[in-house]
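Record 1 of the preview.
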Amino acid sequence: MSFPSQARPSEGAVLVRTWTLDRPDQLSRLRAELFTAVTAQSVPDGLVLDELPARMAAAATELATNALCHAGAPALVQLHRAATSFILDVIDRMTGAVPLVTTPVSAPTGKFGLRIATHVASRLGWYIAGGTKHVWAQFAMPRWDDHD
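->
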């Protein structure tokens, strides 16, 4: 299965927090600090965070793991905030490889980071800029009336 074509996330998001990861053992700190950073944000009337922080923490872990495993250290993870969504941007230096979503047949021993991200994010994309590859996931805040 191919990954969505090159695309940039929505414009107008502001940077909230950045993490630099050099080793996989830093992923638990990323998850915890990302969860805290997201839950500290104000939410517009009619919207809720619901399971969004946990979904974002799962996606960040998977995308950062991919960057560390396939491109090596360091991996940079940025959290951006737009009016009604958050954007995770995972940056590495492996510009020669297009992100691919694997299937159980093609990757029986793992490598499902992008597949997981496609299930928990509202939008997903990637692009190359300034000698780096950006793989991003956008998470829309759910409406209160969609919350059960």
